[in-house]
Amino acid sequence: MMTPLSAMLRRQVFQLRLQNPARQYYHSLWAMSVRSKANMAGELKKPEEASLDLNHLITANRWSGDELAAVKTTHREPTDWVDWASYMTVRTLRSSFDLFSGYKFRTTLGAMHERDWLRRVIFLETVAGVPGMVAGMVRHLHSLRLMRRDHGWIHSLLAEAENERMHLLIALNLRRPGPVFRGIVIAGQGVFLTWYSLMYLVCPRYCHRFVGYLEEEAVITYSKLIDAIDADQLPMFSNMKAPLFARQYYNLPKEAMVRDVFLQIRADEACHRDTNHFFSDLKPDQPNTKVDHLRKGHFQNQNVHSGVLKLQREAQSKVMHETFQSLDHDHDGFISTDDLRWAFQQHDTPFNDEDLDEMVRKADRNGDGKIDYQEFVKVMSEGDFH
């Protein structure tokens, strides 16, 4: 039977938990995870799609129409030298690539055709798949070396790498590059992989900010591509059905068009943009609590929950400590019978000395006649403080 003090303590802890944003945040993530799993469980393969088995993938993006429409081009203003260094690196690479690839010249003249867009997308996606894999590998080895948990970064980064690779495979369903283009890709990837790996070992914050700015440019690129389709400048894309691979990956209907696929890819890039800016703001040992990653498959749900569970445990510990301090009336680090008597009087709760002595006796594990913090946490977690 629950005593008056037990009821009072539980009400106090419950109220503190309700006021804690981490608790509310965890419940929202849990609800999103349940909906995501329910949606994935309800998806049945159509007969003509049975040959494509994508169940092994980490990512399983599901964007609603409202979410696709809400994607906007954004820019995070640099605030310190790391931000400026990463931003200027992206601007330099973007300007150089636009110039040497002919993109700047063709867009000025309105002469970007479907093959030009596909060539650009294919090359950029071969590069975009590198950062997530490098960062995930470095953090994985870091976790092994230090023998501690990563708290939700690794799977997010690996999911980003896989998602960018899916973009490449979708584009390859539309155009197959020749040997010269493949050679350029191999050379470009070798240079970028070496540079990014070294930079991530030196300054991960710079690298995540760099990817954040790079994804800002990707959103701009895909927005221009979609605008060109809407303006009837790309008639082949305007009338082309979405390839089977893209429809199954994004769970699109059979009548989906290529434009619908580009909308999905742009939403992915916006997600990577916001996530990497978020990572750059975090300290390396802080948990990843980015909600957007719940759009991914079961590994991502596990990943985000691992970060949030750490946050929840910290919040629960804070609530327990505040409750203990509120009962420790004389601030001597212990809860005595006199402290409990004072607490009952403050809350106008009826009591008798026998009940107070019994409560202290049950919680007192070392027999000193008082309740220390560890004893209080243990008895509260066991629900035996009555």
From TrEMBL:
<dbReference type="GO" id="GO:0010230">
    <property type="term" value="P:alternative respiration"/>
</dbReference>
<protein>
    <submittedName>
        <fullName>AlxA protein</fullName>
    </submittedName>
</protein>
<dbReference type="GO" id="GO:0005509">
    <property type="term" value="F:calcium ion binding"/>
</dbReference>
<keyword id="KW-0679">Respiratory chain</keyword>
<dbReference type="Pfam" id="PF13499">
    <property type="entry name" value="EF-hand_7"/>
</dbReference>
<keyword id="KW-0106">Calcium</keyword>
<dbReference type="Pfam" id="PF01786">
    <property type="entry name" value="AOX"/>
</dbReference>
<comment type="similarity">
    <text>Belongs to the alternative oxidase family.</text>
</comment>
<keyword id="KW-0809">Transit peptide</keyword>
<keyword id="KW-0560">Oxidoreductase</keyword>
<dbReference type="GO" id="GO:0005743">
    <property type="term" value="C:mitochondrial inner membrane"/>
</dbReference>
<keyword id="KW-0496">Mitochondrion</keyword>
<keyword id="KW-0813">Transport</keyword>
<keyword id="KW-0479">Metal-binding</keyword>
<dbReference type="InterPro" id="IPR002680">
    <property type="entry name" value="AOX"/>
</dbReference>
<feature type="domain" description="EF-hand">
    <location>
        <begin position="351"/>
        <end position="386"/>
    </location>
</feature>
<keyword id="KW-0408">Iron</keyword>
<comment type="function">
    <text>Catalyzes cyanide-resistant oxygen consumption. May increase respiration when the cytochrome respiratory pathway is restricted, or in response to low temperatures.</text>
</comment>
<dbReference type="InterPro" id="IPR038659">
    <property type="entry name" value="AOX_sf"/>
</dbReference>
<keyword id="KW-0249">Electron transport</keyword>
<dbReference type="InterPro" id="IPR018247">
    <property type="entry name" value="EF_Hand_1_Ca_BS"/>
</dbReference>
<dbReference type="InterPro" id="IPR002048">
    <property type="entry name" value="EF_hand_dom"/>
</dbReference>
<dbReference type="GO" id="GO:0009916">
    <property type="term" value="F:alternative oxidase activity"/>
</dbReference>
<keyword id="KW-0472">Membrane</keyword>
<keyword id="KW-0812">Transmembrane</keyword>
<feature type="domain" description="EF-hand">
    <location>
        <begin position="315"/>
        <end position="350"/>
    </location>
</feature>
<keyword id="KW-1133">Transmembrane helix</keyword>
<keyword id="KW-0999">Mitochondrion inner membrane</keyword>
<dbReference type="InterPro" id="IPR011992">
    <property type="entry name" value="EF-hand-dom_pair"/>
</dbReference>
